[in-house]
Amino acid sequence: MFLLYLCLLQVLTGAQHEPGYCSFYEDCGLNPAVEGALIPPRVPCKDYRKAVNVTGDHYELFKSVCPMLAHGEGKTLACCSFRQLTALQSSLTLSKAVLIRCPSCADNFAHIHCATTCSPNQSQILKITKTANITQPAGMVKEAVVGYEAYVSTSFSDASFRSCKNVRIPATGGYAIATMCGRYGATLCTPQRWLDFQGDSSNGLAPLDINFKLLPDGQTAGLPPGAVLFAGTALNCNETTPTGGEACSCQDCEQSCPAVPQPPPLPEPFMIGRLDGVLVICIIVFSCIFLLLICYVILEYTIRYQKSKGARKGKNTKDQNENEIERKISPKDVTCSDKASLATQEFLGSLFQTWGTIMARYPLIVLPVCLVVVLAFAVGIKDIELTTDPVQLWSAPQSRAMREKAFHDANFDPFYRTNQLILTAPDRPSHYYDSLLFGEQNFSGIISKDLIIELLELQQKIQAIEFWSDELNRTASLKDVCYAPLNPDNPSLTDCAVNSLPQYFQNSMDNLNAQVNMTELGVTKEVDWRDHFIYCVNSPLSFKDITALGMSCMADYGGPVFPFLAVGGYENEEYTTAEALILTFSLNNYARTDVKFKVAEEWERGFLEIVQEYQKNPNTNFTFAYMAERSLEDEINRTTAEDIPIFMISYAVIFLYIAVALGEYSSCKRILVDSKFLVGLGGILVVGCSVMASMGFYAWIGIPSSLVILQVVPFLVLAVGADNIFIFVLEYQRDMRRTGEKREEHIGRVLGNVAPSMLLCSLSESVCFFLGALSTMPAVKSFALYAALAVLMDFILQMTAFVALLSLDARRQDANRCEIACCVTVKTPHPSEPNQGVLLPLMKKYYAPALLNPVSRVLVVRSYFTNNGISVFLQLEALLCPRDSYMLDYFAYLYKYFEVGVPTYFITTKGFNFTSEEGINAVCSSVGCDQFSFTQKLRYATEYPERSYLAIPASSWVDDYIDWLNPGSKCCRIYTAGPNKGEFCPANETGLFMCTKKCMSIPQNGVLRPSVEEFNRFLPDFLSNRPDLQCPKGGLGAYDKAVVRDKETGEIIASRFMAYHTPLVNSQEFTAALEKARELAHNITMTMRNVTGTSQDFEVFPYTVTYVYYEQYLTIVNEGLFNIGVCLLPTFVVCCILLGMDFRSGFLNLLTIVMITVDTVGVMTLWGIDFNAVSLINLVTAVGISVEFVSHLTRSFALSIRPTKVERAKEATANMGSAVFAGVAMTNLPGIVVLALAKAQLIQIFFFRLNLVITLLGMAHGLIFLPVLLSFFGMLHDY
């Protein structure tokens, strides 16, 4: 009997793997072993039987769900009932929602599950491994299959996997396979891991456990007797499907991609031999220039020697006592230039002498009149508008970036406001965790439960911020201003987009503390938060993990948390080794005129207060950096206020120097008589009044100012004003009053001597700055206007108020009255000889002779031209926060730990027909789309991220809209019953027979394209459809604000497609990214304009928040050359005119200023000072200050009557050089050195460093190079 039983068992066992037999059949109910399933886990009944011939409705449904197994009605055998097919169809619909854009992939995926569920040879390709008893509604108990082993050939599994591995999810730019491979994500996914996830009932999607055994074709080892490998025909992704589906697009299938030419290789560095080519050319050019100069000097000396030799032959130059005979100039030797120069100087000297005499004669009338005029201008300061928004400072209102920003903000919400913390725990040791599911994993110190809980507590404290809002007249909180993508109309706190690691646990402490035992492959271990974390960072779109915890990975607001938004500082997607946690609160951005703008700023104030208090807490376990959207502007304003005392000290030092340096100090007893404290103070007040008058005037006419103007213009005017004051006062002190000459006449005569030089510099600078106002940069333009008028007003006040003030002081000094105690007189008389001071004798006796000896002159010219060549080479090769600002730490953390670049939008304007089939194909990237469509080109660009600076393909609402419409998914249905009959029915509608009609029918050619009417009808439903498990393609959150339609016609007038840049860390990369994005957008624009019906003014352009800041770098070189050029031109023209058309002196003057500017840029390169709009303002200032160093000396040389150039250069260096050194260099340097104490990096770099460079280079060129240059090439006038 026992032997008979064994034989029968063997027969039955063998019969379980025979062709034409089923292992299970009919729906048996819900799997009792699956808890927390996302869809009903319906399982089949165990039923070994012959395959059933399907007919009628059964066959029609079978052909719809598994067309690859259908052979015609009455000829098709299957192992699945109608109810099984319905459950299978429902399950496949979820996958089709993301795979349908690639028909062959969707077909292969369905083929796998159709084979195991419905194949007529089902018993041969699988073995039941687990069953369970399920009580039926009628009370009968049936044995249900809850686990089986399927045998699949690797040729089929590998080909199916290849067809699906590149299918994209347009909304995220990622791969669909990442959502179907569990913990492995897209990177580590393999055919085995892909199918394992499909057969894992713990993921909430699979109704039962399936163990897929993948074996090579022909291999029988490991198979039960009679079993065979399923080796169906898998379609390649570039093949059409048997049902008419088109080949997948290039976006989803590499085999479908056309031959795209490789970009040309990057140009090699320009080399000549082994040397830098630019350096070699600079050396050659400047060597040639130097040789030409030497040749010119030799030629000129030869000619002069011949002339002087001939003159000596005809005339005796000494008398009988060997005394030099005074040389008389013949009228024929006087050139037109000499006559013009002399006439100009006589006219200007006479004019200013008369003017000065009048001003000095009536000081008590002049001073009140000047005060009234200044006050009339300065009253406008009460209406002054300070521009602090960096966008308004550096981007011209009509610049491309500003126009594009205006278009974006007018049609879409402004880019949301980011409030972020980046937290690290550098002293925490890492540890290993032996996971039941994932094996041994290395966890960094910061990925620890206690720190995650601490982060969650901080996050919840920030989320709970409340404050009284005057704008809303009620208590406001985060929900009033937060970015809530899935519930934008009436958000709660849990609807606010907060991205952080605790969001993987839905910010629940219970979820974080959850622990449960789990058995895998016979091993039972505890799983906890670490297993859930590992799963979620690799599969962030999952609604349920595969652990026994069964928790979702989605954030509490309903969206996914991508790992690069939760952790940072990892390599090769090893997220458990991350060195930083990232916490981000996203707020809606509002126009500054919107009442909610101040509400958002007030919430950010509370955010900063909590974070700063948390940072000061000694119990804090994190080292972190943070920022709010308002932080940058706050820090600029804060440090500006804090640095005001530094500027005040700087001005005080300058005033003290001027007051002391202007004194004569002939005797200790006369110190208080000869001092010039009041004159120095008067000079400072003249500068202050000129600046206030300028600011008040422009405030009257509505031109805004900026903090840069407040900091730079006073320094500039002080440099100009102090120089003029020193020249005037020193000339007055050195000049003896003539016999019978009144004090007023003496002052007038001195003014007549020096005022033309003062006019030359002031007029040059003023015209220079007025022309600089042609700049397109608002900050540069307003600075130029304010500086131009301030310099002009400074000159006018010096010619009036300061002359009157000097007259009063001279009257006091003549009466021997003390300066401070005017009633006290000193008996010691004023010395009869003029006081030459300290500098003049030193420069006359030592400095000028040493500088202008033959050897020094040649060395100076050679070294200066060499340095200038090096500066040119450095240029060709070629910050707003305080040193103690938390923003500096934030930027450092951002560059170090953030793994993704800024998002960028590719925006379309009005004029393109998205509703036509041709228009759709020109934009989309799924099946049937043009190979070089809009989104396909963006995808091609991401293949070369080092060139395009694009990392992730753009999300495409057009592609997702097409997928959403596809009848293969249940996203778009229509109510067929009930009160909403005929209207859109969402996928989460569960009513039976309520929504039996699909929005569109299956297209014959497999390429779904809605008609114009269908496109316009269902688009609003798509944009308002909240994505969920049943329909992940819903557009709410991802696209509801990405499409703007005309309210009357329904025409799409603007839309946007979001991509991501690669991580950008410096201005060069940000600028290159902008440039490449614009090139790509222009290429797309030109292609799309060829589509029928497209307007020729239609445009695609890129936009992100950083473009308005970095656009200046695209044009900064041209802008700088233009601004500096228009500043240099008037210095040449004015110099020539005021020196009587002396073109040579004008050219030498210009050459020296150019060399100062070029050398300044060269030093900027060496000192790490970026060339941007702020440095451009300082370079324009450098031209103005250079005029002070150069023009006075040039004019002094031109007017000298010494017989030789060298003697004239010595005289000019001693007399005027000493005044320039005392007035410009020594006035600027003390004030500049004080600025080294400033906290703001803006002041540190662009005011301290750059002004120090400008002053030192101006002094070096004006007092060393220019005298030598004039001694060689200056014009020798014969007056």
What would the keywords be for this entry?
1279 residues, alpha+beta, 5-stranded antiparallel beta sheet, 37 helices, disordered N terminus
Poorly predicted regions: 1-15, 314-333, 869-882
Give the proportion of residues in helices. Answer: 40-55%
Q: How many strand elements? A: 32
Structural class: alpha+beta
H/I helix tally: 37
Radius of gyration: 42 Å
Strand content: 5-15%
Mean pLDDT, nearest integer? 83
Distance between the termini: 145 Å
Taken from the alpha-carbon principal axes, the silhouette is elongated
Biggest sheet character: 5 strands, antiparallel
What does the model show?
The protein is of the alpha+beta class and 1279 residues long. 50% of the residues lie in helices and 12% in strands. A hairpin with a 5-residue loop joins β5 (126-135) and β6 (141-153). α24 packs across α34. The radius of gyration is 42 Å and the shape is elongated. The model is unreliable at 1-15, 314-333 and 869-882 (pLDDT under 50).
